[in-house]
Specification:
It contains 1 helix and 3 strands. With 46 residues, it is α+β, with helices and mostly antiparallel strands. This is Zinc-ribbon domain-containing protein. InterPro entries: Zinc_ribbon_dom. It holds the Pfam family Zn_Ribbon_1.
Length: 46
């Protein structure tokens, strides 16, 4: 389920991890982005 879908359906507790550098979606257990190597991981709960 995408972020917009979660917001539209009112589903709460949806988590998103993404690289702050390149914006790629990451797994919850990622310490760094496999695409760009950045260790800056953003975490959002919707």
């Amino acid at each position: 389920m995408g972020v917009l879908d979660a917001l539209r359906t009112g589903r709460r507790g949806t988590e998103l991890y993404e690289c702050r550098n390149c914006g790629r979606k990451l797994d919850a257990d990622s310490d760094e982005c496999p695409h760009c190597g950045s260790s800056e991981v953003a975490y959002y709960v919707f």
